[in-house]
Amino acid sequence: MKILTVIGARPQFIKAAVVSRAFVEHRPDVREVLVHTGQHYDANMSNVFFDELNIPHPDYNLGIGGGTHGQNTGRMIEKLEELMLSEKPDWVLVYGDTDSTLAGALAAAKLHIPVAHVEAGLRSHNRRMPEEINRVLTDHVSTLLFAPTETALQNLRTEGIADAKVQVVGDVMYDAALYYKGRARKPEWFDALNIALNEFVLCTIHRAENTDDPVRMRGIFDGLERAGLPVILPLHPRTRNKLQQMNLEPPTNIHVVEPVGYLEMVWLEANCKLVATDSGGVQKEAYFHQKPCVTLRDETEWVELVEGGFNMLVGADAYKINSAINKNIKLDFLSLLYGDGQSSRSITATLKKPNAEL
Q1: Which of 78, 110, 272, 303 is the most buried (most CB within 10 A)?
Q2: How far is residue 183's CA from residue 186's CA, in Å, rounded to a whole number?
Q3: Closest Cα to residue 274, out of 289, 256, 255, 291?
Q4: pTM here?
Q5: C-alpha span between 74 and 68 (Å, rounded)
Q6: E strands within 15-90?
Q7: pLDDT at 46 over 60
Q8: pLDDT tens for each residue of 275-328
């Protein structure tokens, strides 16, 4: 069986790492062709992850990135269609909710190649988010939908997707958290900051709804400043450019650093006091490392984290950000919201079944 996997952004590298490892356990019955669209084309946001996560470098790198959503998606579909016609895979596997996800799913569906979507059924119910459009469309053209939670399953049922197409497998990010926890690496620059362990906020900001809005960015920075704790902010290149265009400087308690590798990110998550982020994946990683999360968005796909009190939605409101960071709460991290850490093996076993059994 040949599986063509399409990835293009940092979270997908991490998810692909654990699933690809499960595929290797089934060689030669399972052969994976790894395609990197190039959506994240900066070396610090791409190549380093293949190296440190021990993922084979892609069989193909399409080098597509830097354009608008429409430009990128269209170019990806064209190139992916050519590859699929050449490689003739039995399955096309896509992850998450990026332009690469949608391009892979559409190219495969139009060629009548079965599509499997990992992380299916997530909904923020905000159609202004490009990610929401990508995930909804991908789910509706997929043959198999690997949902991480029962909430995701219910979302798919609401949209009329048959249960027979859906399998709740848990979250592959939990597989990754368990595997890489012992391999975490302290950033070389950390000691020079003179910040105590478990006494700093780890912050990530990259979504356009924040980075493209000066009012929201000022609100976020104001809230982080008021909280009074040191903040470590690995800054996405796009965010850095936006801040320069806005002539907006982070407050002095925010330590801006270059983007970090995944193993360094794991270390920072494990050793911070709490996480403040607009990233979907980092919200879950905070939970995996038993840290409270302050989400710099107005809604989230990971509603079970909010319902359990692990995650506090604050948007870009400075008062709410400050209050959430300084809220002294005790959380029960013993519940298993995202499976047992064997999601990648469940996915592999399902894909190996003859189509007639699905």
Answers
A1: 272
A2: 10
A3: 291
A4: 0.86
A5: 10
A6: 31-36, 60-61
A7: no
A8: 999 998 899 999 999 999 999 999 998 999 999 999 999 999 999 999 999 997
**What's the CA gap between 5 and 320, in Å, rounded?**
40
d(CA 69, CA 123): 20
Residue 171, classed as helix, strand or coil, is: coil
How many Cβ atoms from other residues are within 10 Å of residue 319's Cβ? 12
Catalytic residue among 36, 40, 117, 206: 206
With beta carbons less than 8 A apart as the criterion, state whether 223 and 201 touch: no
- Nearest-angstrom CA–CA distance, 13 and 344: 14
Q: What mean pLDDT, rounded, does the chain reach? A: 92
Distance CA 54, CA 244 (A): 35
The secondary structure element, H or E, covering residue 81 is helix 69-87
At a CB cut-off of 8 Å and minimum separation 6, what does 119 contact?
A: 15, 95, 96, 97, 135, 146, 147, 148, 171, 172
Active site residue 206: yes
Residue 42's pLDDT is what? 54
Largest CA distance in the chain: 61
- Cβ-contact 161, 140 below 8 angstroms: yes
- Which of 124, 174, 123, 153 lies closest to 337, judged by CA? 174
